[in-house]
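Good morning,

Attaching, inline, the backbone tokens for the sequence recovery test we're adding to the shared suite. The designed sequence is right after.
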């Protein structure tokens, strides 16, 4: 069977995108439900902040896994969802930071600024958010045209900096040994290694082709 036919017919169907949107919004709907049901626990601000942070990092890693998934399975149609998944990572990161600004700091901008400068994990979080914002703003197709494909690609490689910064942010914020940030860090590392491998292979093939042409 051609790898890119049967599953691709679902992935390219009109129903696929609404379904993926519904799946991406499910964590938010669940959060609202937990709130309505009074299940935020003794510290609702912390619960919301951690929950949205968790989903931001998950969507970031899921979005980063799309290209390797295409490479491994040959399913080109999965690329339709990459931008959407990246934007959901940004969306949950925005909710995460908004919860920190509104529910944790009560919009005390001077204190927030002090936090950004003094608490290293907040500084690293800010770096990740700045990158995700730049990527979200430049994600529409019109921006690719305006910036030129090469520049756009160069900017979007920063997603790997965000993917490494976020587990560091998580690791630094927790006291003592914690397995979760290490798992996210390991997944980010694997995705980065896959990308590096693909890049090295592409360069080697390019060189071999150039050598064959010259011969
Ligand atoms: C200005 C940017 C950011 C600020 C101010 C910020 C703030 C925070 C704070 C205060 C916590 C700790 C909550 C606690 O002590 O209970 C936290 C945890 C966390 N943040 Fe951020 N963050 C930022 C950016 C990001 C971004 C961009 C991501 C993901 C893409 C992210 C993912 C996480 C995760 C996964 C946790 C740990 C959640 C857990 O304990 O389960 N943060 N952040």
């Amino acid at each position: 069977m051609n790898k890119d036919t049967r599953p691709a017919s679902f992935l390219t169907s009109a129903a696929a995108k609404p379904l993926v949107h519904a799946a991406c919004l499910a964590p938010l709907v669940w959060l609202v439900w937990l709130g309505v049901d009074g299940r935020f626990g003794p510290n609702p601000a912390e619960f919301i902040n951690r929950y949205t942070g968790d989903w931001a990092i998950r969507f970031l890693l899921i979005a980063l896994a799309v290209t390797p998934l295409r490479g491994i399975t040959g399913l080109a149609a999965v690329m339709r969802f990459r931008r959407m998944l990246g934007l959901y990572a940004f969306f949950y990161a925005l909710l995460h930071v908004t919860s920190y600004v509104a529910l944790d700091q009560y919009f005390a901008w001077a204190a927030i600024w002090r936090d950004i400068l003094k608490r290293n994990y907040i500084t690293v979080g800010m770096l990740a958010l700045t990158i995700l914002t730049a990527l979200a703003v430049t994600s529409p197709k019109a921006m690719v045209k305006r910036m030129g494909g090469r520049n756009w690609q160069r900017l979007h490689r920063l997603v790997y900096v965000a993917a490494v910064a976020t587990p560091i942010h998580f690791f630094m914020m927790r006291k003592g040994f914690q397995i979760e940030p290490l798992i996210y860090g390991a997944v980010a590392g694997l995705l980065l290694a896959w990308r590096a491998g693909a890049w090295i292979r592409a360069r080697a093939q390019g060189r071999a082709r150039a050598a064959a042409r010259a011969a």
